[in-house]
Design brief:
Helix content is about 40%, strand content about 20%. It is α/β, with parallel strands linked by helices and about 400 residues long. The strands form 2 sheets. Strands 3-4-2-1-5-6-7-8 form an 8-stranded mixed β-sheet, with helices on both faces. The protein has a 6-stranded parallel β-sheet with strand order 11-10-9-12-13-14, with helices on both faces. It is globular, with a radius of gyration of 21 Å.
């Protein structure tokens, strides 16, 4: 089959969206399908650039810049991006090709008009990989109020659901999102599509060597990824401070994000010698980083009302790392961790309570020699890229 994969993030970007969509593309190729990837690229020198690789064809379209600008300008830029893409595709050979299915990733919520036009052009169904309930999560975190801009964004969100033939949500709890009011009409399109992960290459070394730091020979908690407002790291930093006198424990934060500079400054101000910050590294180095660590950290702001199975959680368990997760109430991840005995979770705002949970986890790991195996087995059985690709293909075949 021939698939068109559309996303606003793809390598060399290092976001979780870029990683999982590239893993899906490679898996579709491994299963014998032909894949074309379509991405917006504000940095393009020309309107439309095409590159051919062994596993896929990449088409990048020059679009308006959407980063490092105010919300109003960014929203306008994102709104017009799908129209710009379709217009500029006219100069690409892709416009005369045929496809058996379209797969696209949300967020962004703005691709609906583009998908609608491409479905008509190619006469094929489209699968929406839905990972965020935007704009509702922004309301949950107090970043937006239910005023006119919110309702405009809701209309855009609804339209992408209308265009999709099948919608893959990332956790069972997200079915409830489609039980309410206007969204109920899309419920028949919704299915559970777990996030996925592909085993990394352990032969690739990591630029970070913890044995050469002050955290050598400690039990290492690692967080690798985005550090933004959606994570609410203040409680985690309070936890780090409570561990400052326990010299067997250390914390490593690797990544980027709006909160990254503030967290580094906070650690300096509090004179925390048990935490080290590193800038973002290439995703290929992550397995070698995790091989030096003991426990993976997941941080979600408890004000979130939707369920979220973060990509970093999958990368932790795929590497055999148990998890300490600070979650929002009702998140399916808590049950997943508990039922499979792969770590501990906490819902709340009390750093002392979180430390008690953490101490218990550390103690249990000393007596549990099988936890790493359970982590890897869960990743392979429930969160494999092969499984996700087959599910998407079957859904698109069913819609033909």
């Amino acid at each position: 089959m021939k698939f068109l994969v559309i996303a606003d993030a793809f390598p060399p970007m290092r976001t979780s969206a870029a990683v999982i969509m590239s893993e899906l593309v490679y898996e579709l190729d491994r299963q014998g399908h032909k894949v074309t990837v379509l991405i917006p690229s504000p940095s393009n020198n020309t309107c439309c650039e095409t590159k051919s690789y062994d596993q896929f064809k990449l088409i990048s379209i020059r679009t308006p810049k959407t980063n490092d600008m105010g919300y109003i300008r960014r929203t306008f830029a994102e709104f017009i991006t799908p129209y710009v893409i379709f217009y500029r595709l006219g100069s690409s050979p892709i416009i005369n090709e045929s496809f058996d299915g379209i797969v696209w990733y949300s967020p962004s919520i703005f691709f609906g008009p583009l998908i609608s036009r491409l479905k008509k052009r190619y006469g094929c169904p489209a699968y929406l990989v839905l990972r965020d309930m935007f704009p509702d999560w922004a309301v949950d975190l107090g970043l937006m109020k239910k005023r006119l801009p919110y309702y405009i964004l809701k209309f855009i969100e609804f339209y992408q659901y209308k265009v999709a033939d099948r919608i893959g949500i990332q956790a069972p709890g997200n079915f409830k999102y489609f039980n309410d009011g206007f969204l109920e009409r899309f419920k028949s399109k919704v299915e559970l599509l777990w996030n996925w992960t592909t085993p990394g290459d352990m032969n690739i070394s990591c630029s970070i060597n913890l044995e050469k730091t002050q955290l050598a020979d400690r039990i290492i908690f690692v967080y690798a990824g985005n550090m933004g407002v959606a994570q609410d790291f203040d409680l985690i930093m309070n936890l780090v401070e409570l561990f400052r006198e326990q010299y067997e424990v250390g914390f490593v934060f690797v990544g980027r994000g709006s909160e990254f500079p503030r967290l580094k400054l906070l650690a300096e101000q509090r004179e925390l010698a048990n935490i080290i910050f590193f800038d973002e590294i290439d995703s290929a180095q992550i397995p070698a980083l995790y091989a030096q660590c003991d426990i993976g950290l997941v941080a979600l702001d408890p004000r979130h009302k939707s369920n979220n199975i973060p990509g970093k959680f999958l990368s932790y368990i795929e590497a055999g790392l148990p998890v300490l997760a600070r979650l929002n109430p009702g998140n399916d991840l808590a049950e997943l961790i508990s039922e499979n005995h792969i770590g501990a979770s906490y819902v709340g705002f009390d750093a002392v309570e979180l430390k008690s949970v953490t101490d218990a986890l550390i103690q249990s790991l000393k007596n549990d020699q099988e936890i790493s195996i359970r982590c890897k087995n869960l990743a392979q059985n429930l969160f494999s890229t092969e499984r996700a690709a087959k599910q998407i293909i079957n859904a698109l075949n069913h819609e033909h």
